[in-house]
Write a structure and sequence with these properties.
The chain is of the alpha/beta class. It is built from 17 helices and seven strands. The chain has one domain: Hypothetical protein af1432, CATH 1.10.3210.
Length: about 375
């Protein structure tokens, strides 16, 4: 399977002390939750991932890959790796589709349970932390570690795996495993800029506090190749198909919650397939069948054209710092104008989010879901 092959690539050289944490209930729960927010179950061909890439695999890949970059700081990289391993511990079924369900589309900050509260429910995991001499507070907030998480537009492990590489390999169908390997080979973590020539015109470079950066030279990949992958990642989330499907999925989940088929607790405790099974076993199954089988999205004539939305999603972007062969650290405009030329279509995609979109849902489904639409 492609997921397994990719995992071997990402996990090479990782800390074996992570292994026993994989069997805990906290991590096993993530096997049933996908990275691509319910797109595994839709009928629109361009949105269907080639394989199910779970939050378990995503978290494992982040943790092992990050730990491989800290070989000289054994105790330090274990807690960093564990913070990466647990960062999605509070993920609910269908992930960010919950932001559309609850109306938190632009920020997407309320669709996960608190990591600390989840870990405190796992006695086995807490025992392992104690045996490894790791404080719980060191692993409940991965945003403390720049290698794992950093505000846009910086590159970090979460954005690299679940965003750029994962999208290109599994969701957008644009890259082979060998091409992904080449892109991965360009990314590394830089703790400080000591001994380097820094672009003082760049505020990011002047105030550098640790960040993943790109360098050429391995696997014959070039900066333009990486920036093209970033563009695919960013633009995929802006397509009318992606935006519309997330909107409809959010309404659909609200409908089944309102009908008593599912409840809030199930989004955390059950797998996505278990939730879908409950829906299909109910007398309200026809709406789910229609929502997961319609296959066309178009720009609407007006807001009364079927189930139409003006959908403005969270813009996901990345503009990594780059390291030249002469150890010059700079932003991308110091290397290539190609990246900015590729951004032009992205700006056009953003402008299109002002236009209403609709899909070929059945009239009965439209009538059922329209009452859940945000006004």
């Amino acid at each position: 399977m492609l997921v397994e092959q990719y995992g071997k690539l990402m996990q090479e050289g990782g800390d074996p002390r992570l292994d026993r944490y994989l069997g805990t209930k906290t991590m096993q729960r993530l096997k049933g939750k996908g990275t691509f927010c319910g797109m595994d179950y839709v009928g629109i061909p361009s949105l269907q991932p080639v394989e199910f890439y779970s939050r378990f695999e995503h978290s494992k890949n982040i943790a092992y890959n990050a730990s491989s970059l800290y070989q000289d700081e054994r105790d330090e990289f274990l807690k960093i790796a564990l913070a990466g391993l647990f960062h999605d511990a509070g993920t609910k079924c269908f992930a960010h589709a919950n932001s559309y369900r609850t109306g938190d589309i632009l920020k997407q900050e309320k669709d996960e349970l608190n990591v600390r509260s989840v870990l405190l429910m796992d006695e086995e995991l807490l025992t392992y932390l104690k045996e490894d001499g790791v404080d719980l507070e060191d692993v409940v907030d991965y945003s403390k570690y720049p290698i794992l998480d950093k505000p846009i537009p910086a590159l970090c492990m979460d954005r690299l795996d679940g965003g750029i590489l994962g999208t290109c390999l599994f969701w957008a169908h644009t890259h082979t495993l060998e091409e992904i390997k080449a892109l991965l080979g360009m990314a590394g973590y830089l703790e400080s800029t000591n001994g380097m020539c820094v672009d003082l015109s760049s505020e990011r470079c002047r105030n550098f506090t640790g960040e993943m950066v790109l360098a050429e030279g391995r696997y014959t990949a070039y900066f333009e190749d990486f920036f093209r992958a970033i563009h695919i990642y960013s633009s995929k989330l802006l397509t009318k198909e992606s935006r519309y499907m997330m909107e409809v999925l959010g309404l659909t989940l609200n409908y089944y919650e309102d009908m008593g088929v599912i409840d809030e607790s199930m989004f955390f405790s059950l797998s996505e397939k278990e939730m879908i099974s409950r829906i299909l076993d109910s007398r309200f199954r026809d709406v789910w069948r229609d929502v997961t089988s319609f296959d066309q999205v178009r720009y609407a004539k007006d807001m009364e054209d079927g189930l139409a939305f003006i959908s403005k999603p969270k813009i996901r972007q990345c503009n990594p710092l780059v390291l030249s062969a002469h150890l010059n650290l700079c932003e991308i405009d110091g290397i290539s104008g190609e990246f900015y030329r590729e951004l032009n279509p992205l700006y056009e995609d953003i402008e299109l989010t002002d236009k209403p979109i609709t899909g070929n849902l059945s009239d009965s489904t439209v009538k059922t879901l329209v009452k859940y639409k945000r006004r």
